[in-house]
Amino acid sequence: MTESRAETPSIAAPSQSRVWLALGSLYWIWGSTYLAIRVALDGFPPLTLAALRFLIAGVLLLAWQRLRGAPMPTRQQWGASAIVGALLVGANTLVTIAELSVSSGLTAVAVGSVPLWIGVVSGLFGKWPARSEWLGLAVGFCGVALLNLGSGMRGAPLGAAMLLLSPLCWAFGSILSHRLRMPEGLTGTGALMLCGGLMDVVLAVVRGEHLTQAPSGRALIGLAWLVFAGSVVGYSAYTFLITRIRPTLATSYAYVNPVVAMALGALFLHEPISASALVAMGFILSGVALLARAKVTH
Prior knowledge:
0% strand; 12 helices
């Protein structure tokens, strides 16, 4: 690419069916990754887990693109991928660290603030959400807040700090992925994951992480789900959405993910779920519906 994404001609509007298929993937697959992280942490240290997840996914995507004849990133595009990868992969790495001390459902609730931060960061770059989007954000955030009633981060100051920083990193990474000279399509997705995975390798080495024993089959299944579903499918869908529809709708998954994560946590990890969560689900899905009424394409 010779121009930044902010300066290139508009990308053709995607079909509604492709948009909702990609959104559905993020709603359910990324909702399940909180459970997968918790399971995989039984066999891997957090930074090592994040490094393996994104290195494998990044290599697979770039190899696939190479086989299809797609050009590899230029030096400038690798630089942009390193910045965006550090932010997006870094956000997920912070979530992985947080789940050492915070339940998977509560982690998803905390990450539910992403659309609000996206709206603020978009405004800092000159694109404030529309009035109808602010209403959707407010209703959705009420649902996220209701899910969090009666719970907290007691005894988990590190987890709380990670979950405060993670949505900010994700918001800036999402906006910059649309503005910097990133590689196109899956090449860009693979490049940012490879760069972010290498960052995690360095951090894991600095922290002195190492495996004390062979990971269990359960932990390996969790890692495989994070690589193939959470990263290859999920990030590809997110990259497709964030470059074609308004950021607030692209990040509406953050309102649905807590519902999915809490349900799976209760089913498989026996994490408690309150009756108020059912009421909160109505607020969350209403917020998503209000976001969807806004203009889909930029």
